[in-house]
Amino acid sequence: MIRKYSDMQTSVKEKLRGGTGSALFRAVAEEGSVKHCRLFSEIILEKGSSIGEHDHVNETEYYWITEGEGIVTEIDG
Q1: Full-prediction pTM beyond 0.85?
Q2: What is the per-residue pLDDT for 17?
């Protein structure tokens, strides 16, 4: 399947998971369209924005940072 960047659904979420600022989501794949995948999106954070700490139970989260810098806290447990 070929998807044009301009056709990908976007949404904005404020204070994501208790974080600060806003996060722009651009869906690479729509929710439920990829087996065993809950979220497959580009997430753009404005400078100074954050995603609050949260758990991932029985799932994996991948990061592909293409620009800027940040801090990721991961606890293996």
Answers
A1: no
A2: 94
Name the one residue in this structure whose structure tokens are 């753009």: 44
The answer for 38, left when phi > 0, alpha when psi is -120 to 50, beta otherwise, is alpha
Q: Which amino acid, 30?
A: E
Using 70 as the pLDDT threshold, list the residues of the chain that sit under it: 77
The answer to whether 28 touches 3, Cβ cutoff 8 Å, is yes
Q: What burial letters (b/e) apply to 28-48, b meaning 16+ CB within 10 Å? A: beeeeeeeeeeeebeebbeee
User: Which residues make beta-bridge pairs with 27?
Assistant: 41
What are the DSSP E strand ranges found in 9-73?
Answer: 10-14, 22-29, 40-45
Residue identified by tokens 């996060």 is: 23
Q: Count CB-CB contacts under 10 A for residue 26.
A: 14
